[in-house]
Design goal:
Length: 276
Amino acid sequence: MAAGSEKTTSTDPTTAAIRANYSRVATTYAGQWAETLAHHGRALAERLLPDGRALRWVGEVGCGPGLVLADLERLAPDARVVGIDLTEEMLHQAPTRFDRVAADAQALPFRSGTLDAVLMPFVLFHVPDLPLALSEVRRTLAAGGSFGAVTWFEHDPHQAYQVWVEVIDEYGAPPDPAPQMPSHAVTSDPGKLEIALQTAGFGSIEITVERFHHHPTAARFLAHSQVIGAMARRIEQLPSDRRTACLAAAERELSRLEPDAFIESGTVLYVTATAT
Ligand SMILES: C[S@@+](CC[C@H](N)C(=O)[O-])C[C@H]1O[C@@H](n2cnc3c(N)ncnc32)[C@H](O)[C@@H]1O
Protein backbone atom coordinates (compact mmCIF):
# COMPACT_ATOMS: atom_id res chain seq x y z
CA MET A 1 0.00 0.00 0.00
CA ALA A 2 1.35 3.39 -0.95
CA ALA A 3 0.93 6.19 1.57
CA GLY A 4 2.59 9.42 2.70
CA SER A 5 4.17 11.37 -0.11
CA GLU A 6 4.29 8.93 -3.03
CA LYS A 7 4.72 10.04 -6.62
CA THR A 8 4.28 8.46 -10.07
CA THR A 9 4.63 10.15 -13.46
CA SER A 10 2.48 10.13 -16.59
CA THR A 11 3.85 10.29 -20.07
CA ASP A 12 0.88 10.66 -22.42
CA PRO A 13 0.72 14.23 -23.78
CA THR A 14 -2.94 14.91 -22.90
CA THR A 15 -2.42 13.92 -19.28
CA ALA A 16 0.79 15.98 -19.17
CA ALA A 17 -1.12 19.03 -20.51
CA ILE A 18 -3.87 18.54 -17.91
CA ARG A 19 -1.26 18.35 -15.15
CA ALA A 20 0.48 21.50 -16.46
CA ASN A 21 -2.84 23.34 -16.51
CA TYR A 22 -3.77 22.39 -12.94
CA SER A 23 -0.26 23.25 -11.68
CA ARG A 24 -0.74 26.75 -13.08
CA VAL A 25 -4.24 27.34 -11.65
CA ALA A 26 -3.98 25.44 -8.33
CA THR A 27 -4.13 28.44 -5.99
CA THR A 28 -7.02 30.14 -7.80
CA TYR A 29 -8.84 26.82 -8.09
CA ALA A 30 -8.53 26.20 -4.34
CA GLY A 31 -9.56 29.75 -3.42
CA GLN A 32 -12.30 30.46 -5.94
CA TRP A 33 -13.78 27.30 -7.43
CA ALA A 34 -13.23 24.26 -5.20
CA GLU A 35 -16.02 25.05 -2.74
CA THR A 36 -18.59 25.16 -5.57
CA LEU A 37 -17.74 21.60 -6.58
CA ALA A 38 -17.18 20.31 -3.04
CA HIS A 39 -20.92 20.54 -2.39
CA HIS A 40 -21.35 17.66 -4.89
CA GLY A 41 -18.32 15.70 -3.66
CA ARG A 42 -19.79 15.79 -0.15
CA ALA A 43 -23.27 14.73 -1.33
CA LEU A 44 -21.69 11.84 -3.26
CA ALA A 45 -19.72 10.79 -0.16
CA GLU A 46 -22.91 10.76 1.95
CA ARG A 47 -24.63 8.63 -0.68
CA LEU A 48 -21.72 6.21 -1.14
CA LEU A 49 -20.78 5.72 2.51
CA PRO A 50 -24.04 5.71 4.52
CA ASP A 51 -22.35 3.49 7.11
CA GLY A 52 -18.58 3.68 6.72
CA ARG A 53 -17.61 2.32 10.13
CA ALA A 54 -16.27 -0.98 8.77
CA LEU A 55 -14.04 0.67 6.17
CA ARG A 56 -10.23 0.65 6.50
CA TRP A 57 -8.96 2.42 3.36
CA VAL A 58 -10.82 5.14 1.46
CA GLY A 59 -9.28 6.98 -1.50
CA GLU A 60 -10.33 10.09 -3.37
CA VAL A 61 -8.71 10.01 -6.82
CA GLY A 62 -8.36 13.50 -8.32
CA CYS A 63 -8.97 15.04 -4.88
CA GLY A 64 -7.54 18.43 -5.93
CA PRO A 65 -7.38 20.70 -2.87
CA GLY A 66 -8.99 17.98 -0.77
CA LEU A 67 -12.11 19.71 0.51
CA VAL A 68 -13.98 16.40 0.74
CA LEU A 69 -11.29 14.48 2.65
CA ALA A 70 -12.57 15.62 6.07
CA ASP A 71 -16.06 14.41 5.13
CA LEU A 72 -14.65 11.01 4.20
CA GLU A 73 -12.90 10.92 7.57
CA ARG A 74 -16.18 11.73 9.33
CA LEU A 75 -18.14 9.11 7.35
CA ALA A 76 -15.48 6.40 7.73
CA PRO A 77 -14.02 7.19 11.17
CA ASP A 78 -11.79 4.10 11.38
CA ALA A 79 -10.47 4.33 7.81
CA ARG A 80 -7.19 5.74 6.57
CA VAL A 81 -8.24 8.43 4.08
CA VAL A 82 -5.89 9.01 1.13
CA GLY A 83 -6.01 11.94 -1.29
CA ILE A 84 -4.63 11.05 -4.73
CA ASP A 85 -4.07 13.55 -7.53
CA LEU A 86 -2.11 13.89 -10.75
CA THR A 87 -0.98 17.41 -9.87
CA GLU A 88 1.35 18.03 -6.94
CA GLU A 89 0.43 21.73 -6.78
CA MET A 90 -3.22 20.75 -6.23
CA LEU A 91 -2.23 18.28 -3.49
CA HIS A 92 -0.21 21.05 -1.80
CA GLN A 93 -3.54 22.84 -1.21
CA ALA A 94 -4.99 19.81 0.65
CA PRO A 95 -4.94 19.43 4.44
CA THR A 96 -1.58 17.95 5.45
CA ARG A 97 -3.00 15.56 8.05
CA PHE A 98 -4.15 13.27 5.24
CA ASP A 99 -1.93 10.95 3.22
CA ARG A 100 -1.46 12.57 -0.18
CA VAL A 101 -0.23 10.63 -3.18
CA ALA A 102 0.74 12.23 -6.50
CA ALA A 103 -0.42 9.67 -9.08
CA ASP A 104 -2.32 9.17 -12.31
CA ALA A 105 -5.70 7.41 -12.16
CA GLN A 106 -4.47 5.39 -15.16
CA ALA A 107 -1.61 3.88 -13.09
CA LEU A 108 -2.54 3.78 -9.42
CA PRO A 109 0.32 2.91 -7.03
CA PHE A 110 -1.78 0.62 -4.81
CA ARG A 111 -1.78 -3.14 -4.50
CA SER A 112 -4.82 -4.97 -5.93
CA GLY A 113 -7.86 -5.33 -3.69
CA THR A 114 -6.68 -2.98 -0.93
CA LEU A 115 -9.12 -0.05 -1.02
CA ASP A 116 -12.64 -0.29 0.42
CA ALA A 117 -14.02 2.77 -1.37
CA VAL A 118 -12.87 5.17 -4.11
CA LEU A 119 -14.47 8.50 -5.00
CA MET A 120 -13.76 10.58 -8.10
CA PRO A 121 -15.76 13.84 -8.11
CA PHE A 122 -15.24 15.86 -11.33
CA VAL A 123 -12.30 13.80 -12.66
CA LEU A 124 -13.42 11.04 -15.06
CA PHE A 125 -13.88 13.39 -18.06
CA HIS A 126 -10.21 14.44 -17.74
CA VAL A 127 -8.80 10.94 -18.17
CA PRO A 128 -7.71 10.18 -21.76
CA ASP A 129 -7.88 6.38 -21.33
CA LEU A 130 -11.13 6.02 -19.39
CA PRO A 131 -11.30 2.18 -19.64
CA LEU A 132 -7.77 1.99 -18.21
CA ALA A 133 -8.57 4.36 -15.30
CA LEU A 134 -11.79 2.48 -14.45
CA SER A 135 -10.01 -0.87 -14.54
CA GLU A 136 -7.22 0.54 -12.36
CA VAL A 137 -9.80 1.71 -9.80
CA ARG A 138 -11.52 -1.68 -9.98
CA ARG A 139 -8.16 -3.47 -9.52
CA THR A 140 -7.31 -1.49 -6.38
CA LEU A 141 -10.76 -2.03 -4.81
CA ALA A 142 -11.58 -5.09 -2.71
CA ALA A 143 -14.46 -7.21 -4.07
CA GLY A 144 -17.65 -5.53 -2.89
CA GLY A 145 -15.84 -2.18 -2.56
CA SER A 146 -17.66 1.03 -3.40
CA PHE A 147 -17.00 3.42 -6.27
CA GLY A 148 -18.54 6.87 -6.73
CA ALA A 149 -18.10 9.70 -9.22
CA VAL A 150 -19.63 13.02 -10.24
CA THR A 151 -19.36 14.20 -13.85
CA TRP A 152 -20.72 17.11 -15.90
CA PHE A 153 -23.97 16.44 -17.78
CA GLU A 154 -25.90 19.40 -19.28
CA HIS A 155 -25.38 23.16 -19.06
CA ASP A 156 -28.20 25.72 -19.23
CA PRO A 157 -27.51 28.82 -21.35
CA HIS A 158 -25.16 31.11 -19.40
CA GLN A 159 -25.39 34.72 -20.54
CA ALA A 160 -22.24 36.02 -18.85
CA TYR A 161 -20.18 33.19 -20.33
CA GLN A 162 -21.60 33.87 -23.80
CA VAL A 163 -20.58 37.55 -23.52
CA TRP A 164 -17.14 36.48 -22.28
CA VAL A 165 -16.68 34.18 -25.30
CA GLU A 166 -17.90 36.84 -27.75
CA VAL A 167 -15.35 39.39 -26.48
CA ILE A 168 -12.53 36.85 -26.60
CA ASP A 169 -13.50 35.88 -30.18
CA GLU A 170 -13.65 39.56 -31.15
CA TYR A 171 -10.07 40.06 -29.94
CA GLY A 172 -8.93 37.14 -32.09
CA ALA A 173 -7.68 34.85 -29.31
CA PRO A 174 -6.53 31.51 -30.81
CA PRO A 175 -8.32 28.25 -29.91
CA ASP A 176 -7.71 26.49 -26.59
CA PRO A 177 -4.27 24.86 -27.05
CA ALA A 178 -4.95 22.15 -24.45
CA PRO A 179 -8.56 20.88 -24.28
CA GLN A 180 -9.00 19.20 -20.92
CA MET A 181 -11.98 16.84 -21.25
CA PRO A 182 -10.95 13.96 -23.56
CA SER A 183 -13.55 11.53 -22.16
CA HIS A 184 -16.48 13.94 -21.76
CA ALA A 185 -18.42 12.32 -24.66
CA VAL A 186 -18.56 9.07 -22.67
CA THR A 187 -18.82 10.43 -19.13
CA SER A 188 -21.72 12.75 -20.04
CA ASP A 189 -23.71 9.90 -21.62
CA PRO A 190 -25.31 7.72 -18.91
CA GLY A 191 -25.67 4.72 -21.26
CA LYS A 192 -22.03 4.78 -22.41
CA LEU A 193 -20.79 5.41 -18.89
CA GLU A 194 -22.73 2.43 -17.58
CA ILE A 195 -21.22 0.17 -20.26
CA ALA A 196 -17.70 1.46 -19.45
CA LEU A 197 -18.27 0.66 -15.77
CA GLN A 198 -19.65 -2.82 -16.49
CA THR A 199 -16.70 -3.55 -18.79
CA ALA A 200 -14.27 -2.53 -16.03
CA GLY A 201 -15.90 -4.97 -13.58
CA PHE A 202 -18.48 -2.90 -11.71
CA GLY A 203 -22.07 -3.88 -10.86
CA SER A 204 -25.05 -2.38 -8.99
CA ILE A 205 -24.50 0.75 -11.08
CA GLU A 206 -26.74 3.72 -10.32
CA ILE A 207 -26.58 6.98 -12.24
CA THR A 208 -28.77 9.92 -11.24
CA VAL A 209 -29.13 13.44 -12.62
CA GLU A 210 -28.68 16.23 -10.04
CA ARG A 211 -28.91 20.03 -10.32
CA PHE A 212 -25.80 22.20 -10.42
CA HIS A 213 -26.08 25.87 -9.44
CA HIS A 214 -23.44 28.56 -9.02
CA HIS A 215 -24.12 32.30 -8.74
CA PRO A 216 -20.95 34.42 -8.54
CA THR A 217 -20.81 38.20 -8.62
CA ALA A 218 -19.54 39.85 -11.82
CA ALA A 219 -16.16 40.57 -10.18
CA ARG A 220 -15.77 37.00 -9.02
CA PHE A 221 -16.81 35.60 -12.40
CA LEU A 222 -14.15 37.72 -14.11
CA ALA A 223 -11.43 36.95 -11.56
CA HIS A 224 -12.02 33.22 -11.85
CA SER A 225 -12.61 33.06 -15.62
CA GLN A 226 -9.40 34.82 -16.56
CA VAL A 227 -7.35 32.15 -14.76
CA ILE A 228 -9.33 28.88 -15.00
CA GLY A 229 -10.84 27.24 -18.07
CA ALA A 230 -10.67 27.16 -21.85
CA MET A 231 -11.22 30.92 -22.31
CA ALA A 232 -8.39 31.72 -19.87
CA ARG A 233 -6.08 29.50 -21.91
CA ARG A 234 -7.20 31.34 -25.06
CA ILE A 235 -6.57 34.89 -23.78
CA GLU A 236 -3.22 33.85 -22.36
CA GLN A 237 -2.00 33.43 -25.94
CA LEU A 238 -2.72 37.07 -26.84
CA PRO A 239 0.13 39.62 -26.80
CA SER A 240 0.04 41.42 -23.43
CA ASP A 241 -1.34 44.78 -24.70
CA ARG A 242 -4.12 43.02 -26.61
CA ARG A 243 -4.83 40.81 -23.61
CA THR A 244 -5.17 43.89 -21.36
CA ALA A 245 -7.54 45.51 -23.87
CA CYS A 246 -9.56 42.29 -24.16
CA LEU A 247 -9.96 42.03 -20.37
CA ALA A 248 -10.97 45.70 -20.14
CA ALA A 249 -13.59 45.19 -22.87
CA ALA A 250 -14.88 42.06 -21.13
CA GLU A 251 -15.14 43.92 -17.83
CA ARG A 252 -17.06 46.73 -19.56
CA GLU A 253 -19.50 44.35 -21.28
CA LEU A 254 -20.01 42.19 -18.19
CA SER A 255 -20.72 45.26 -16.01
CA ARG A 256 -23.80 45.95 -18.18
CA LEU A 257 -25.42 42.62 -17.29
CA GLU A 258 -28.00 41.96 -14.58
CA PRO A 259 -26.83 39.82 -11.61
CA ASP A 260 -28.89 36.83 -12.85
CA ALA A 261 -26.82 36.73 -16.05
CA PHE A 262 -23.98 35.27 -13.94
CA ILE A 263 -25.96 32.24 -12.77
CA GLU A 264 -24.29 29.06 -13.98
CA SER A 265 -26.71 26.16 -13.81
CA GLY A 266 -27.29 22.77 -15.30
CA THR A 267 -27.00 19.17 -14.25
CA VAL A 268 -24.35 16.70 -13.16
CA LEU A 269 -24.40 12.90 -12.98
CA TYR A 270 -23.87 11.11 -9.67
CA VAL A 271 -22.54 7.59 -10.23
CA THR A 272 -22.33 4.83 -7.64
CA ALA A 273 -21.23 1.25 -8.28
CA THR A 274 -19.83 -1.82 -6.57
CA ALA A 275 -16.69 -3.79 -7.48
CA THR A 276 -17.95 -7.23 -8.54
C1 LIG B 1 -11.97 19.52 -11.63
S1 LIG B 1 -10.71 19.10 -10.50
C2 LIG B 1 -11.67 18.29 -9.25
C3 LIG B 1 -11.00 18.32 -7.91
C4 LIG B 1 -11.88 17.81 -6.76
N1 LIG B 1 -12.26 16.42 -6.95
C5 LIG B 1 -13.10 18.69 -6.66
O1 LIG B 1 -14.21 18.15 -6.84
O2 LIG B 1 -12.94 19.91 -6.42
C6 LIG B 1 -9.93 17.75 -11.31
C7 LIG B 1 -8.75 17.19 -10.53
O3 LIG B 1 -8.42 15.93 -11.12
C8 LIG B 1 -7.02 15.84 -11.23
N2 LIG B 1 -6.74 14.93 -12.34
C9 LIG B 1 -6.90 15.14 -13.67
N3 LIG B 1 -6.52 14.06 -14.38
C10 LIG B 1 -6.16 13.12 -13.47
C11 LIG B 1 -5.63 11.80 -13.57
N4 LIG B 1 -5.44 11.20 -14.76
N5 LIG B 1 -5.34 11.14 -12.43
C12 LIG B 1 -5.51 11.73 -11.22
N6 LIG B 1 -5.97 12.97 -11.06
C13 LIG B 1 -6.30 13.66 -12.17
C14 LIG B 1 -6.55 17.27 -11.48
O4 LIG B 1 -5.19 17.45 -11.14
C15 LIG B 1 -7.50 18.05 -10.59
O5 LIG B 1 -6.99 18.23 -9.29
